Amino acid sequence: MLNKEPKFVMLDKKNIIGVTTLASLEEMGSPEPIVWGLFYNINNNVSIKRKAAYPFTYELEIWSEKDARMTSEPSKEKFMYMVGVEVDDLNEIPHGCIGKTLPAGEHAIFTYTGKPIYILRAYMYIFKEWFPKSGITMAYNYNYAYYKKADSPHDSNSEIEIFLPIKR
Fold it and tell me: Where does the AraC effector-binding domain lie (predicted)?
């Protein structure tokens, strides 16, 4: 279940270290388990130094600079899909990982509760219904989710926050 109205919060910059792949909405469901598995394998072997206040995992989607929703086939538009954790800085990036700094700014935060395998429904509501009616636009070409509580893709008690950098 998704809260239909977000909280609006000013956030500091975030540094994320993780693993990536190219994906598209059309392919969603295929690359995610591989990327999550690769991330957990690397993290278990090198133990990335997570930021203590944010011990759980992030899922980041970075779109091309053009607005994918404006293309003729948005479901085929490629984006970078990343799974990682928040760290204090990007000074020590393990082999096989990349680092990404997300700028500070205002964010709309939606909370999704339920099975992670159904989170695409939440994104569809946000981008197809909420954004067009809100009068708000994306400040940057990414969005991310913070998996506060999710033991498996089928855990119906999962709690995931979806963050969207916005400008009014």
Answer: 4-167
- 142: containing domain: 7-167
- pLDDT tens-digit readout, 130-146: 988 999 999 999 999 99
Any domain includes 73:
yes
pTM of the model: 0.85
Instruction: Give per-residue pLDDT as tens, 1-16.
Output: 998 899 999 999 999 9
DSSP reduced 3-state for 51:
coil
The CATH number of the domain holding residue 57 is: 3.20.80.10
Q: What share of the chain is helix, strand, coil (3-state, %, to 5)?
A: 25, 40, 35
C-alpha Rg value of the chain to the nearest Å: 15
What single-letter amino acid sits at 54?
Y
